TrEMBL record:
Transmembrane segments: 20-36, 42-59, 66-85, 114-136, 247-266
Record-linked CDD domains: EcfT
PANTHER family: ABC TRANSPORTER PERMEASE, PROTEIN ABCI12, CHLOROPLASTIC
UniProt protein name: Energy-coupling factor transporter transmembrane protein EcfT
Pfam family, any one: CbiQ
Locations listed in the record: Membrane
Keywords, alphabetical: Membrane, Transmembrane, Transmembrane helix
Domain of life per record: Bacteria
Membrane topology type: Multi-pass membrane protein
UniProt organism field: Neobacillus rhizosphaerae
Main location: membrane
Amino acid sequence: MAVEMLSYIDRQSPIHRLTGVTKLICFLIWSSIAMLTYDTRILVFLFLFSICVFIVSKVKLKEVAFVLLFILLFLMINNLAIYVFSPQEGVKIYGTSHVLFEISERYTITLEQLFYQLNVTLKYFTVIPAAILFIVTTNPSEFAASLNRIGISYRISYSVALALRYIPDIQRDFRNISMSQQARGIDMSRKEKLPKRIKNAASIIVPLILSSLDKIEVISNAMELRGFGKNKKRTWYRARPFQKIDVLTLILFAFILLVSLYVTFVDGNRFYNPFL
């Protein structure tokens, strides 16, 4: 059976041993650093560190390859859009202009623009591995317990857990319905032309929507019969207490946050400028 995208992958690794609360806090710290800074030195460090964490997690690249390729495609479109709508953004930020070559009067390729868009790309490369790891190494039930532990209502927490659990369910249903329709003679392979494949996809989407609505009704009825939401608090089967590895990880990420903020704002400007 094919591996579901963005579903929990059970491994024996230090990343998996961390509690959901720890991983959530670390992910928020990591994302905050990446959003605040445009210092290339920090972004490169975070990118290399995220690769190391990815290796330690024992998650295989092929298990998340499709998601990474999709995000890379979006990143290419985003970089192209930045240049089309603001081709001199780097010049405005860094205050200098080193022209490599001109396309037109408005569109020129400058070192400053390339450097600015390199930083934007590094931001994606910094956050994406962390986000993917957080999703695939955290059990949805444990994640719900983590959200509830930091003060979020358990009703909202449980809704998030159900949404995460439903991602692989949708993928399994899509594959099953697709195989059933192909057995009936509806070709979804690359042998068919693209317009025909899009038209045939409707024969999968409609049953998929109907089966999803049916599952939603079953789950809501089951929760209602069990009195879900009656009490203000609840216990969690997957909740885990903090361990030594959690404390050390939080201290490490707090240290990275403080150092990153200092390096970013020590000169009063969050943009690292190598052109001065």
